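My main concern about presentation is that the manuscript never shows what a single data entry looks like. For the editor and my fellow referees, an illustration may be useful. For illustration, here is how one protein appears when written out as sequence plus structure tokens:

***
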Amino acid sequence: MEIKDITFSYGDKINRLHQISGEIEIGKITTIIGPNGCGKSTLLGVMSSNYLPQQGHVLLDGKKIGDYKPKELARKLAVVHQQNGAPLDMTVERLTAFGRLPHRNMFSSLSDQDEEAIEWALSCTNLQDKRHITLDSLSGGEKQRVWIAMALAQNSQFLFLDEPTTYLDIYYQYEILDLIKRLNLEHGLSIVMVLHDINQAIQYSDTIIVMKDGKLVIKGRPEEVISEQLIADIYGIEVIVKSDVRTGLYIVPIKS
């Protein structure tokens, strides 16, 4: 996937994205970080064709993303949004099955291929024993896994996640991040996600994109990107950057 000179704004408001260019590597985890309102989720929305840029374009497999028909794009790219909604009496298996809509007619019966994809998605997210449980009986972390399962059922090459750990306590945050890492390593998914926690981004990313004021500031491997000066410039906070054998690279905030 290539991003070429993307500029985007909402209506008459000032630009939210300013001439952003870059490339998303196949088979890697790319994480977008930056302060609130810097354009992280907006960039993800442009990359997934939810927003149409005023300038520039996104190429997926050499084709402009806006030229794909919705079902065709959904077979290549799945998105888990920050906030998701579904009837609370819907079962885990039924919601996961909606991920097969790009491959079938809404009113047709599930094929053997559909059933296999649903079973694989439930297996990847460790939800087989909860397939008949309704959403209102699940924890926050379990609900997030169901939305990821639905995205996996699409059998797409790219998985986009907008702040997948939001509203989760630290246990479920790392459960979701471990799942994302496993999907990348074991199944080769190319993953792009938005995170707020810098240490989580360092730990779980192959590439980090840093944004500020709608602009791409720097992109590269965590150890190339994260520095005390960068954090001060981007977030206005003083940190110490450390590294050890057990934890790898991490930051410790000192003061704002």
About this structure: The longest helix spans residues 170-187. The two ends are 37 Å apart (CA to CA). The first strand starts at residue 2 and ends at 9.
